[in-house]
Structures are given as structure tokens and as C-alpha cells.
């Protein structure tokens, strides 16, 4: 996933098609919530001019994250569309809205930006379909309740007086 600027400029006429799988296991060390991640498939094309190389990418894979409620493993498939622009000409100017990356050591390395996109798209929390897990559903003086259970236990205060009526019947 690395190209030198002369390599990219040589591909200016015909463009560059990318179809690779890359191992991004380092993400498990960067974000402790990512328990596992499959190799990420990168599909896309690069459009190259004298000024810039624009990569239109689609990243896909599956990461394993902990359930927010039970701490069970949840497989989370992802499909990310990303556009990365690298400035090939140091004197070229771009709009301020464009997120343009400068080339370091005359080399375009796409992998750090792929990892960044995956981390940005990771959900804040996922919920497992399983009811039981490593995290307990109840403890001393507390238990996990759903909103439906909570609403069933509430008594309408306007009907509170009717309880006394049934007490008098006994």
C-alpha cells in the first residue's frame, strides 16, 4: 500500500486499481475495545494528476467488539467509503475544505489512513442478541430492567386512590 511519487506519476495515464486485503491487527493495540479484526479488503481506484493522487476506496471487514450490556463478543461487519487525496506537487494549492495529505519522504503510504478510517467508523457501543454474558444482569439490591418492565411497574397516580377501594373489600 506504498507507492513512490514517480511510480504514481507513471500511472497517470491509465490510473491505478486497488484490490487488496491487508492485516490491521495493530488496531487491537490502539483501541482495547477491538477484540479482533479480520483482514480488511480494500477496493478502489486512484486518479492521478501532476498535482495530486485521489484514492476512492471502499473498505470492508468485520471487527469483534464487546456488548455494552453483557460484554459478549459481537461481530460488527463494516463497509466504509473513503476518499484520500495526496498532494504530489509541493507548490499546488487546494481548497480549504479539501482534506489533502502531504507526501512524506516522496512516498504515499495509504495504510495509516485506512486504519484511521476504521477507527473513526467504529461504533461507540454495540448490543448483543444474547441475554446472558460475562456482565451480571442483577446483583445485591439491583437488577437490569428494560423500559417496558419499568413502565409496567409504574402505577398511574390518578388511579392510586382505587387501591384503597380494593383494600376495603377484603
From TrEMBL:
Origin: domain of life: Bacteria
Chain residue ranges for the region called Disordered: 129-158
Pfam family for this entry, one: YceD
UniProt biased composition (Basic and acidic residues): 145-158
Matches recorded under InterPro entries: YceD
Annotated protein name in UniProt: DUF177 domain-containing protein
Organism: Evansella cellulosilytica (strain ATCC 21833 / DSM 2522 / FERM P-1141 / JCM 9156 / N-4) (Bacillus cellulosilyticus)
Amino acid at each position: 500500500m506504498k507507492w513512490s511519487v514517480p511510480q504514481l506519476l507513471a500511472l497517470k495515464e491509465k490510473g491505478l486499481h486497488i484490490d487488496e486485503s491487508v492485516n490491521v491487527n495493530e488496531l487491537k493495540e490502539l483501541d482495547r475495545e477491538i477484540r479482533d479484526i479480520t483482514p480488511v479488503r480494500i477496493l478502489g481506484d486512484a486518479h492521478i494528476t501532476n498535482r495530486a493522487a485521489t484514492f476512492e476506496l471502499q473498505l470492508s471487514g468485520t471487527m469483534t467488539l464487546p456488548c455494552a450490556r453483557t460484554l459478549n463478543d459481537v461481530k460488527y461487519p463494516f463497509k466504509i467509503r473513503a476518499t484520500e487525496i495526496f498532494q504530489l506537487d509541493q507548490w499546488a494549492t487546494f481548497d480549504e475544505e479539501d482534506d489533502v495529505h502531504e507526501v512524506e519522504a516522496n512516498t504515499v503510504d495509504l495504510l495509516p489512513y485506512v486504519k484511521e478510517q476504521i477507527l473513526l467508523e467504529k461504533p461507540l457501543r454495540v448490543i448483543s442478541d444474547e441475554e446472558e454474558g460475562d456482565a451480571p444482569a442483577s446483583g445485591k439490591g439491583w437488577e437490569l430492567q428494560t423500559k417496558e418492565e419499568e413502565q409496567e411497574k409504574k402505577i398511574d397516580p390518578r388511579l392510586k386512590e382505587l387501591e384503597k377501594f380494593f383494600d376495603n373489600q377484603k
